[in-house]
Amino acid sequence: MDISLSHVDYRYQANTPFERLAIQDVSIEIPSGTYLAIIGHTGSGKSTVLQHLNALLIPSEGTVTIGDREIKAHQKNKDLRPVRQRVGIVFQFPEHQLFEETVEKDIIFGPMNFGVSEAEAKKRARIALKQVGLTEEILDKSPFDLSGGQMRRVAIAGVLAMDPDVIVLDEPTAGLDPRGRKEIMDMFYALHNERKLSTILVTHSMEDAARYADQIVIMQQGKVVKKGSPEEIFSAPQDLMQMGLDVPEVVRFQLKLEEKGNIKLEKIFLSIEQLSAAVAEQLRRGVTS
Ligand SMILES: Nc1ncnc2c1ncn2[C@@H]1O[C@H](COP(=O)(O)OP(=O)(O)OP(=O)(O)O)[C@@H](O)[C@H]1O
């Protein structure tokens, strides 16, 4: 399912003395099957964009298109439930939303809330549990008897059990240790690859964006200031530095030249020191040796 934002503005508390223009003239295209990362400092508008992707927020100006639904400012946007069902959002610290007595009840809550039968929801719960790397013995346990990492996986399974076409991840690894972070990110990448699940990752980590995404959008003060493939974005690390982005972490990024008729860039991981000015220049010009 394709999603796009076209010239979207969003104002919190519109028409009050507290009105705040959070995003301005944001246009982003997310064709079906894309892995898109949205990066930016705190307050740059990432979460506001994210909430437009499944119509939790309705634009103040502009149009959001989700599959065949157009959601616009100044019109009645009726019955958005089917849209919300197709775009699953994993919010920050999703385990805080666990509340049922057992893992199984927590996972089936979402699908049943959207009208899926109990039998089907239970079937999906088992599939989702496997997808997040947990086994069925856990189904009868209380979510509160699990480790933090397991709780997060259960919460993610609850979103996957909705069988979404698109999954939106808001800092999904916040608070996890490096190993846990990698496991979760690799898991989402596998889902993206195997199920061709469109994935939208909101992150502060340039490294994760470089490693996993096909497309990167950089936001600053409510606006999209740069977008492109990781190769395009990281070919000019100076621009990122000027934006105050954490380049040493960011550009532990790798570029390898691969000969296949024409030469293609492939992501590998190098340190910034290795990304010499000469290579950066070649990449900028699309020239290879
Ligand atoms: N409910 C709200 N009411 C008023 N202003 C808000 C509200 N939510 C966010 N804002 C403001 O909108 C702007 C964009 O916020 P947003 O949460 O989208 O940024 P963000 O990039 O997701 O930040 P973070 O990385 O901290 O999550 C900020 O200036 C923020 O203060």
From TrEMBL:
It is a peripheral membrane protein. CDD domains: ABC_cobalt_CbiO_domain1. PROSITE patterns: ABC_TRANSPORTER_1 (PS00211), ABC_TRANSPORTER_2 (PS50893). The keyword Membrane applies. Transmembrane segments: none annotated. It is found in: Cell membrane. Its EC number is 7.-.-.-. The keyword Translocase applies. ATP-binding (A) component of a common energy-coupling factor (ECF) ABC-transporter complex. Forms a stable energy-coupling factor (ECF) transporter complex composed of 2 membrane-embedded substrate-binding proteins (S component), 2 ATP-binding proteins (A component) and 2 transmembrane proteins (T component). This is Energy-coupling factor transporter ATP-binding protein EcfA2. It comes from Neobacillus paridis.
